[in-house]
Every structure is written in structure tokens, then in C-alpha cells.
Amino acid sequence: MLEINYSTVIDPFLRNIRSFIPDFGGIKPGERVLDVCSGSGAQVGEYRKRGILGFGLDLSPDMLSLSRRLYDPALPSDSYFTEADARHLPFADASFDYTSTTLALHDKPAQTCLEILAEMKRVVKPEGYILMELYVN
Question: pTM for this one?
Fold first, then answer.
């Protein structure tokens, strides 16, 4: 099976989207954002580059290893990235100013998407926002 290096093949095509999302959302330095299904971590990297407190969550140990290597200078115990199921986010209610997800829901069953969105809503502050970049075919 051919293995694709997501960070060098896919992420360059998404560079403009990654920079658009914080601008569109009006996210300011110091605000907390959880990127759900964070994949390679590139969106978190964009947030961090701008002084936004970006955190990523993904279920794939391989993607988390990649994202930590590329975008996480912290020690593993203080990592910006968490391994968890997006249907059961391991964060308290209203923990983030924003939640985001980029091109991550299109391949999931509808019920799973609804569960993920409910969790994203739960962990974002009442005055916060959920930002989504979707692929629809």
C-alpha cells in the first residue's frame, strides 16, 4: 500500500485555508482554540504562530506523532496535542473560546458527526464559536 506523507502532500494545498480560518473567526492572540480531528497539526501550528493558544485532538497515534514532531516544542506531558475520541472530548464544559475542525467530518457517518459537533459545542464557551471547513461532494 502506498503511504502518503500528509504534511508534505496535503498540507501545502490547505495552507490558504489554514490562514483564513483564524482571520475569518476573528481569533485573537491569547484566546484558546481546540482543533478537533487535528490530523497533522497544521491548523494548531497556524494558531500558535499567531499567538493563539491552539490545542489539537486526534484519535490516530500516527497523526499525533507527526503533529507533535512538527508543531509541538513542549515536553510530552505538556503537549498541545491529545489523543482521544472526538465523540468524547476530555475537557470540561466551556473550556475554549473556539473549537475548529478542518476537512475532518466528510468521511464519518452522520451520527458520528452529530456526536462530534455536540461535543465541540459543549467545550466551547457560550459566547464562543465553532469553526468548520467542510468538504461536501
Answer: 0.86
